[in-house]
Amino acid sequence: MLPIISAEERLKERHSAKVGLVGFPGVGKTTQLRTLPPKTTLFVDLEAGDLSVKDWPGDTVRPRTWQEFRDLVVFLAGPMPTASADQAFSKAHYDHVCATYGDPAQLAKYDTYFVDSLTVLSRLCLAWCKTQPQAFSEKTGKPDNRGAYGLLGQEMITALTHLQHVRDKHVIYVAILEEKTDDFNRRYYQLQLEGSKTALELPGVLDEVVTLAVLKADDGSTYRGFVTGADNSYGYPSKDRSGRLDPIEEPHLGRLIAKCLGQTPTANPNTEHTN
Questions:
Q1: I want to staple 122 with a disulfide (CB 3.0 to 4.6 A). Which of 151, 193, 222, 243 is the partner?
Q2: 273 — pLDDT class (breaks 50, 70, 90)
Q3: Is residue 185 part of a domain?
Q4: How many CA atoms lie within 13 A of 198 on its CB side?
Q5: Mapping DSSP to helix (H, G, I), strand (E, B) and coil, where does residue 148 land?
């Protein structure tokens, strides 16, 4: 029988949001962690720079290598059905990691994975890629940067896409935004990541991409806000697949996720005002 999911069954499913949170350094991206419920949020701290949230009372994991991050992803997301036994994210990989980390039932308490940041993660991944056979010329045995960067794009997109496929968890990816100029001296913005493949492809697989920025009001004063519209006048990367967001939203990630899902935000006693 064809495994059809009825509309009634689909509507009963717990829905989640996959969000890319980007912004310039120091704008307050990591601090958005404070707007999420600490008891149900897992902070994946890749930067080891959690001074701004050092008193946040939630759980944290700190992978320090690309291999550790891949192990964490397969533990959080489960095995990938299409992966062969010798590949990352396979059932064999999952079983091996569970033997180390324990029963994955311990993850049931979490509603949200907050991954900070992809900028650092891409550097960890590139360092690993440069040690792999694809990073060396078959003819000369010398390092081949094209091979390393090609592998980097494959590894990053595979891992991040697999994690964001977890249906019942919100997944937040934080990344630094940088300003660039093209050959015609026109300004544009892009994610600060090693290689170009991840920066180009990741926004397409996420539900929401929001830029946290300092904006100017009509009276000349400044304020922080989430830029969410794809055709915004600032040129910031953003998209809203939910269709529920205003072009500029208040800088409160918890309430933004609730609005994306058409829900009423629940009170979070640990939330700080972020304006």
A1: 193
A2: very low
A3: yes
A4: 28
A5: helix
